[in-house]
Design brief:
single chain; 232 residues; alpha/beta; six-stranded mixed beta sheet; two-stranded antiparallel sheet; 6 helices
Length: 232
């Protein structure tokens, strides 16, 4: 299977200014994701999608391909990630280069391993689903069977639609949330459905002990603490 790995890296960042190229333990945050992608033998091509010249130069210095500059219209705070992925896929198709699937790797999750990435790709191929996402378990206190939303009368209703509330934690079904580390989607689903997910979604569970999704300075501090713990 021909898989295009896309690492989206834009210049603007409000939570942690310049975080995508900010040094984490002596190397740019981007490097952690790029190095894992390069080490996988299951990815056909690895590229960085950016609108920023400085990021482009750093990415190339790491050995990544930057085959185009992303339009500024696809580098806004509210730009849907799927649009960035489709832009890259269509650029390659304009060059008569085609891929069966796209693997989206976000730099804000720096601690995935190549073993984890390869396992995700292998599961995606084996399951033959429209997509695969990496996930973490939802803590039981936030399980949808124990959460509520306001109904049209101003009262609470169970978000899972249960008529009877599950009373015991042990009876709760396991719930998961996307963790942002790995997304893999068939190209035809991206292009025809404009979706990262499609109708069938496989999953792989991340290691919670080494997981962080860097969006704030507190997240950055957590990343530094994880590195210190690993060094010990």
């Amino acid at each position: 299977m021909r898989i295009l790995a896309i690492i989206p890296v834009r210049g603007g960042s409000k939570g942690v200014p310049g975080k995508n190229i900010k040094l984490l333990d002596g190397k740019p945050l981007l490097a952690y994701t790029a190095e894992v992608a390069f080490a996988s033998n299951l990815l056909t091509e690895v590229i960085v999608s950016t609108e920023d010249e400085q990021i482009s130069e750093i990415a190339k210095g790491l050995g990544a391909k930057v085959p185009f500059f992303r339009p500024m219209s696809l580098a806004e705070d509210n730009t849907p990630t799927v649009d960035v992925v489709i832009h890259a896929l269509k650029w390659y198709e304009s060059q008569s280069v085609f891929f069966d699937a796209v693997c989206l790797l976000q730099v804000t999750c720096p601690f995935r391993t190549v073993e984890f990435l390869n396992k995700a790709i292998e599961r995606f191929v084996e399951k033959d689903t429209d997509s695969l996402v990496s996930v973490l378990k939802v803590p039981h206190v936030y399980n949808p069977h124990w959460t509520f939303e306001e109904d049209h009368e101003g009262n609470l209703k169970n978000t899972a639609g249960d008529s009877q509330i599950i009373s015991r934690r042990q009876e709760l079904p396991t719930a998961y949330h996307r963790d942002g580390s790995v997304y893999i989607t068939k190209s035809k689903v991206l292009l025809k459905e404009h979706s990262l997910y499609g109708k069938s979604i496989a999953f792989i569970e991340s290691d919670p002990e080494s997981y962080v999704n860097i969006d704030t300075l507190a997240d950055w501090k957590k990343a530094e603490e994880i590195i210190q713990q690993k060094m010990k």
